Amino acid sequence: MATNPPRPFPPCHQYRDFLDPAEHEGLLEWAIANRERFEPARLTGHVLDPKRRIAERLRDLGPYREVLERRLNENLADIFRRTGTKPFEIEFFELEVAAHGDGAFFAHHCDMPVGTGRKPLGGDKTGKQDRLISAVYYFHREPRRFSGGTLRLYRLGDHEASGDFLEFEPEQNSLVVFPSWVRHEVRRVSCPDCAFEDYRFAVNAWLCRTLGPRP
After folding, report:
1. What domains lie within the chain, and their CATH numbers?
2. What are the pLDDT digits (tens) for 101-139?
């Protein structure tokens, strides 16, 4: 009996040495210094659901928002190419710092709703912007004291997230980019007895534009 060929993997890429060493170290120090400002990460609609996501996050990057936006803009043409995205004008960079301690994870999901009845998600909270490209920047203290926390991307159309997948390690000073409609998850982190400064840190970034026809 003939079988259908597997669906393709999503277009994606991992950039290494994404920030300058001083910028990378400064971001880590800034995140640790702002430990008290982190809050439990929530789902769409500000829902707190530990069965779907466990993490802490901070929506303010202070002086490092400009650093990340500049570096993303410098690589924008290549990011479009690597993610198979038709170039568009970036209207807003949505950014957050996520801190993953022992047991933290994010079950499979999409960063942008799909389907005919979907609404925009992300941007500047006007309710009119879409996330089109997702980017995850990894940073952590050395020596690394956590394990796990890989980013898993599923084949296109694998809505149950049960088939083959691509997996990216949270590699120091690297950035992974992929289309925001790709189904993905963050695998569970293990770092028993670790202090906050030893967590798996990441900047989640979304490149957004006003809701409209798909690129």
Report:
1. 13-210 (2.60.120.620)
2. 999 999 999 998 665 555 666 666 676 789 999 999 999
